[in-house]
Amino acid sequence: MNFYLISNSFKSFYLFRREIIHELNKKYNVVLVANKDEYFPYFRQKYKCISLNNYFNSRNIIKNFRLILKILLIFFKKKPDIVQTYTIHPNLLCIPLAKLFLSKTCSMVTGMGATSVTKNFFLIKILDICYKFSFYFCDYIIFVNKDNEKYFKDRLNINKKSIRIYGAGVRRKKNLKSNNFLSKKLNLQKTFNILFVGRLIKEKGILDALKIFKLINIPNKRLIFVGDFDKSGFSKVLNKKIFKYPGVIITGHLKNTDEVYNFADIFLLPSITEGMPTSLMESIMHNVPTISYNIPGINDIIINNLNGIKLKTNDINGVVNKIHQIYFSKKYKNLLLNNSKKLKIKINRKNVIKKVLNLYEKLK
After folding, report:
1. Which stretches of the chain score pLDDT less than 70?
2. Residues whose CB is less than 8 angstroms from the CB of residue 7 and which lie 6 or more positions away in sequence, other chains included
3. Which of 172, 190, 206, 269 has its CA 20 to 30 A from that of 113?
4. E strands along 161-220, which residues?
5. Cβ neighbour number for residue 362 with a 10 Å cutoff
6. How many angstroms separate the Cα of 313 from the Cα of each of 276, 292, 296?
7. What is the DSSP letter of 170?
8. 3-state secondary structure of 43
9. Is the distance from CB of 57 to CB of 233 less than 8 angstroms?
10. Which of 239, 216, 217, 221 is nearest to 229 (CA)?
11. CB 94 within 8 Å of CB 85
């Protein structure tokens, strides 16, 4: 059976789906389709891969028309038996095309993206119509949070068979030495380190993170951004000059993020839109106290002041106070970490993979 996995980038396959691709390849003829990027060579050596020249996430009408033709040609050459799509553009475009070939179809709603916080009423209406049309052809939906599920079922009246899981889940933490290479390179052994992991875009709360950091009254503080500037999709690109402030460090994208959590004292996620934030789950798995805004995705895993901290969106002073509380109260910090033990079992990637593989067996 030909099993197509379609996403906007090979990077997303690498970060979130490597293990499941490996398991699927044992039983199916797996074909990966995504925009070509630096992770394409990694997968090309092991699996059948089809790379696209930045067609996904393009707003260009002509390029989208070409993308439709390319997907149709891909499916025509090797008929799909099962098609699994991820992220907004592949979900909307590829599911109806797959049904032309009588394929079984499954979409993972990884989040609503920057469009979920737009004030453009016309854009929202267009997307709603597109979702209702495309998901009419979907056999099964994977939701990563209860808010997205409610939106699709209650507002859009899309009542397909579905399951809710914790995104891609996360691997158990690796045992790393306390003085790892990155920590030594950045001289972080004796500093108070606040960690942010994600794309450096406005929707992820970068501006809030900088405001918060400037107000913190802690000696030898550091704010470490792990991620790249993202020019794709609807995200607003930020001027790099705003990061020029004492104590602010940008590492860029790291293929292996295990060690960065090892030197973090607090994980900060001031994002205003999420699906199921992998970086937040990784922080929990690595025993780092977390602070985030009360938004979809966060609500599914964080119980405030029990296994993490969540505050109202843009509550700058509230975040500053909580960082001070963690810094000055070891008891409070330990409370947050001890109460996250049960959650670690739920978000373990092995458990997530089992659920998804069971779903695919039902689709056959």
Report:
1. 114-117, 173-179, 231-238
2. 13, 17, 32, 33, 34, 56, 85, 86, 87, 90
3. 172
4. 161-164, 192-197
5. 12
6. 17, 9, 11
7. B
8. helix
9. yes
10. 239
11. yes
Order across the sheet with 48-52: list the strands: 48-52, 29-35, 2-6, 82-86, 104-109, 140-143, 161-164
Q: How far, in Å, CA of 242 to CA of 353, rounded?
A: 40
CA pair distance 34, 28, nearest whole angstrom: 19
pLDDT digits (tens, 9 = 90+) for 99-117: 999 999 999 998 877 666 6
> What value, to the nearest 5°, has the Cα angle with vertex 351 and ends 304 and 262?
60
> Per residue in 147-194, pLDDT tens?
999 999 999 999 999 999 998 888 876 655 555 777 778 888 889 999
- What length is written for the chain? 364
Alpha-carbon gap, residue 256 to 275, rounded angstroms:
21
pTM of the model: 0.88
Q: Which amino acid is at 93?
A: L
**Amino acid at residue number 190:** K
Q: How far is CA 321 from CA 1, 64, 171, 213, 326, in A?
A: 55, 47, 31, 11, 9
